[in-house]
Amino acid sequence: MMTILKVQQLQKTYVVGNTEHQVLKNIQLTIQKGEFVSIMGPSGCGKSTLLYTVSGMDQATSGQITFLQHNISTMAEPQLAKLRLEAMGFIFQQHHLLKNLNLFDNIVLSAYLAKKHSRQKINTQATQLMAKLGIAQLAKNDITQASGGQLQRVAICRALINNPAILFGDEPTGALNTAATSEVMDVLTTINQEGTTILLATHDAKVAAKTERVLFMLDGEIIAETTLGKYDPINSDLFKREQQLNRWLVQLGF
Ligand SMILES: Nc1ncnc2c1ncn2[C@@H]1O[C@H](COP(=O)(O)OP(=O)(O)OP(=O)(O)O)[C@@H](O)[C@H]1O
């Protein structure tokens, strides 16, 4: 096993007026390459802050964050931005696609900016990704010509275009209906099976039940975790996984 992300004694404090608000308290977290991990916990417990801090989008107050061989905690912003572009993918509750570009161009834009590969190679990769996610026919559409679930799949293609080592998701299914949530989770499961490490925050136990390991946060700390093992859409008993997770969440008072 190879550790992809190691977080030690991470603290994050926001100062609002004269008041310090400690949002992350002494977080320890290790993610192995290839894992699919979710973070649950009540609203305001710090899930998003944790994702943004470990990915270097937000600065830690103290502690150490090691991503691959990079010490994120001490990296300068230009290097961090390059690392994020080349090695991390992000999906959010809202797709944040640009409305003046068609869906294909939304996907390729960050890879064109990264300039690591020729446009021809990037276009081929985008076409393959869209086909894999079942949205090839939407390439020329704009964002008003696709459903919420389809747009989120476009956002996933965009996040994967630079072949990131890790994909972060902040409530990636939060704006979707049940059917679209299930579709997106199946897509993420396939991507994970193919080797991409995934860390996502979710309120939804049905989403977390499809992940391999679930962390529970309360008031800025990870207070518990449970391992469900890899979800296999063909052979896994999803109902059993959901029951197991719900029992655990009830024990935690969630
Ligand atoms: N930029 C900021 N300045 C001040 N306080 C902030 C800032 N961002 C977040 N917070 C506070 O930090 C705490 C944790 O917020 P965060 O969004 O990380 O929680 P969360 O668990 O993701 O919540 P939700 O599930 O509702 O998205 C909250 O009390 C929030 O108000």
TrEMBL record:
Key words of the record: ATP-binding, Nucleotide-binding, Transport
InterPro entries hit by this protein: AAA+_ATPase (IPR003593), ABC_transporter-like_ATP-bd (IPR003439), ABC_transpr_LolD-like (IPR015854), MacB-like_ATP-bd (IPR017911), P-loop_NTPase (IPR027417)
Matching CDD domains: ABC_MJ0796_LolCDE_FtsE (cd03255)
Alphabetical list of Pfam families matching this protein: ABC_tran (PF00005)
This protein's record includes keyword Cytoplasm: no
GO terms assigned for molecular function: ATP binding
Top-level taxon of origin: Bacteria
Domain ABC transporter intervals: 5-244
PROSITE patterns: ABC_TRANSPORTER_2 (PS50893)
Name assigned to this protein: ABC transporter ATP-binding protein
